[in-house]
User: Fold this.
Amino acid sequence: MGFEIRRIVTGHDAGGRAIVHSDRQLRARAVPDGTAWFNKIWSTECWPSDNSDERDGAEQDSTLSNANGSVLRIVEMAPGHRSPMHRTPSLDYGIVLSGEIELELDDGRSVLLHSGDVVVQRGTIHAWRNPGAMPARMAFVLLSAAPLPGT
Assistant:
């Protein structure tokens, strides 16, 4: 798959007027087993973010989520595949862009999400599974959050 996303970043000229700082295609990268592709669109290292930072947020080092920052990522999962159970130490907004995807929680409950559905993930242990015959694509915004007690 290795899909591309067009990303436009705005900024300011020397006089403080709005400009298009960059307009380019970003190519997704496969996870090691090749069952999903991650396309990091932007990330920040602090909260609140610093709009005067001229570095490209897609090229900054980050983990799945950034402590004291944010990450915007588009993820595409191959049909029939499932992520490992995991927890992100963040508040995550997930928006299904296309296909369908199942959210599995560590209590055994599952919720099937369709294109246009939104999930607010609040630091829970979860996995994603694509039960469909087509790739499933989601946008994730991960925001730093206070640690949960006992985690």
